[in-house]
Amino acid sequence: MTAHPDFLKYVNKHADKFVQRLADAVQIKRYPGNLSSIRDLILIVLYLDLFSISGDAAYREETIAMGHWLEKQLKGLGVTTTLKDLGQQTLQGQRLDLPPAILGKLGEDPKKRTVLIYGHYDVQPALQSDGWATDPFMLVEKDKKLYGRGSTDDKGPIMGWLNVLEAHQAQRLELPVNLRFCFEGMEESGSEGLDELIEREAAAGGWFNGVDCVCISDNYWLNTRTPALTYGLRGIAYFAINVSGPGQDLHSGLFGRMVHEPMTDLIKLMSILVDHNGQILIPGIESMVAPPDESEIELYTKMDYSIADVAEAVGASIALSDHKETVIMGRMRNPSLSLHGIQGAFSEPGSKTVIPSKVAGKFSIRLVPPQTPEIVNPLVTAYIESEFAKMNSKNKMNVECSHGGKPWVADINHWNFEAARRAVEAVWNKSPDYTREGGSIPVTLTFAETLGVNVLLLPMGRSDDGAHSTNEKLDLSNFIEGTKVLGTYLYEVAQLAREA
Amino acid sequence: MTAHPDFLKYVNKHADKFVQRLADAVQIKRYPGNLSSIRDLILIVLYLDLFSISGDAAYREETIAMGHWLEKQLKGLGVTTTLKDLGQQTLQGQRLDLPPAILGKLGEDPKKRTVLIYGHYDVQPALQSDGWATDPFMLVEKDKKLYGRGSTDDKGPIMGWLNVLEAHQAQRLELPVNLRFCFEGMEESGSEGLDELIEREAAAGGWFNGVDCVCISDNYWLNTRTPALTYGLRGIAYFAINVSGPGQDLHSGLFGRMVHEPMTDLIKLMSILVDHNGQILIPGIESMVAPPDESEIELYTKMDYSIADVAEAVGASIALSDHKETVIMGRMRNPSLSLHGIQGAFSEPGSKTVIPSKVAGKFSIRLVPPQTPEIVNPLVTAYIESEFAKMNSKNKMNVECSHGGKPWVADINHWNFEAARRAVEAVWNKSPDYTREGGSIPVTLTFAETLGVNVLLLPMGRSDDGAHSTNEKLDLSNFIEGTKVLGTYLYEVAQLAREA
Predict the structure, then answer these.
(1) For the Peptidase M20 dimerisation domain, which residue ranges apply (chains A, B) (predicted)?
(2) Catalytic residue chosen out of the listed positions A153, A187, A188, A261
(3) Residue B32 carries which DSSP code?
């Protein structure tokens, strides 16, 4: 069963209405919009300075207002909803309510599969003076692109789901699956409170009971040409190597070559973590990752990506290899180690002749299965400690792991991915790239582990959308065809259930 | 000829008067002291904040006032003086007169040797709230120590010379040598204008014509127990290794192991400059320094210094070696390389997952003869460039030398040093340590090169005087016996001329 033809026709016919829905959503700014009080007036003044600060207390009321607007939309489309209070947080010295999570339910047919949809309605800060060509909180269409904060991250995909619901409701079409919704308003600020909510709702009697799979549309194609399905995310383990020696900073003229300098020790330790090809030198880290089999290599070979794409994305021809597969695997299926910087050393312009007394070298490792922070940390610590011991330094050294997160990889042979592949091919007439992302979206892992079901990342936007940047956009075609993909995906989920 | 006995008797008898002279000098603060205008009132208010800023425009008038006071003292002691205008500087947006240099002349006897005395009358900033037990600009005697800003650096030594003059003038004793004076008021702020002045006055008809040797009393014993004569200073060459790649900072999740990271390259380059024993790894740097001969080693062996002294000075037992001579040579006669820090990388507390796009690693090499910045720079640059080439990185790298200064070493067998040795032994009943300092006093080299005569550093204070720190002090014995050393030194210069 492909998508109902009336669904697809409705989407084509009502593109303008859908764009207006996205425009309404984008206009709900994340800053105070009403001059109803002295406080608001003050905030308007402050806002010039504060706007670039993500998660600012001044914008909380508007974020909550967006949640209420979204809940009303869902209700109007026949969804049973509830606003889940996630408690409070302290931000900039203020005790603030967290924006509520919106849970939704549509359909209870035990013969149908139940798909859980996740999205987030909060956005990154934006100020026209940051370099936006237009008001970031007015959706502007130009050259078939929809510009506005949240257009691609993540209001566009959420509106895509509302479009799907509207097309069915307006034409009294039956949805092929049961739907559950989980829309949060804190994704850009650490998803505070969400993990606990998912755990509660996954328990008996919760809103997520009976969920068969999860679909998250909060990421992007690998390029600007080919749709993608994302089936993996790297984890992370973040470290600091602390080296200290003298009781205070020393003058290099007086003490250079008299004492063990903490910087000499630290730089040496940082230099033996990763080689110039990106290979991690800590024993046991690389070797625990299984090499790719032929079918996996084929994914990379077929992937619509080139060394030129890397150069364009980073603004320089500095890819680690001329082989496309090597570079792609470096991001998607291999661990990576990046040296971020040193705290406590001289970091200003100019030339200071200091011997810093206490320095902390920061680095992190992006993890892939079977690596976890718990498995990797002892290897990292043991290696650095043994290398430091060889140096016979009289300074003090310790390794600190400040935070970590596990990697996630899904089975792309699962019907959830198969349904998405069929939907992409039906709508775009093109096979999707199967991608793994280098970074983390922690909620993905929470859904996978808590619900024990397959999780799919189904991107709507393209690689050049500028999600956290200026002039964020969503191509009109990605919004409209993307809406078709979302709806068709539901039909394919139902079809595959029948085939099973 | 040892010192005239009446000179020594006068010093013993007039210690109180000499201390009062130093008290007067210390009280001439380097901040506005008179509430004569609105401007001064404002400065008094600002002064709470500004005081710790060296070379602040707000204190310029008082520094100039100190120069005039000092000139008046010299005149009163029979010295022919002139105030040399050194021009102006722009400081904190203000065009300011530089404090004048005071040149002095006493004696024109062609049968006598002519000794040039250098000192500086400006001081480091000081604020009681920095941790001073007493008002830094009131000289306070406690436990036979004289506490106050400038007591040891460098008002004490200058007052020592005035004491010598007074003892001779009051008793109508003839000085054994001709004297020339050069006292500046910008030493703590880069000696602006002084090099040019020295070059002008060294030329025919200048105030420094006929100078046979130079004596600078602006440094310290190696310890608290044994007088020292200093015959060497290390030079410096300061470098930045600049590595750049991506057009902007990158997210390590997205781009880790896809691209050549500037930090990976930089840390590797910084790690191969110096080993953990302080040995410089850049080819040609160590090898150009001749090993010490037996007589030099004997100086270090005899030196009153221990590994415990290092631990006490730096606040930790981190000396590079357990062999006293090795550690002393590390500071005095070997080059050293210190890694100061990295500009452009993550240097704050916390954990940021950035791949910095452009980083600059700062390090400097302390130079010893025959090393000069001109000789060392090409070796450093060639080595780093060749090591970078081996890395096959696609990032851009260059080595920058931001500033440099030559080392200085004097001949300790010269009669100038011999006179100082005899003076120290006569007054202190102890042989001096012959020391070389790890840091730079650029004016030393200017005198040596411009006048072509032997320059002696004759310290008055001890290692624990806290010259640039809180609670700066000069031991009463160092002031009084030090005054005797300065005077006796002049007699020994004359005696050695006769012996020659």
Answers:
(1) 231-390
(2) A187
(3) -
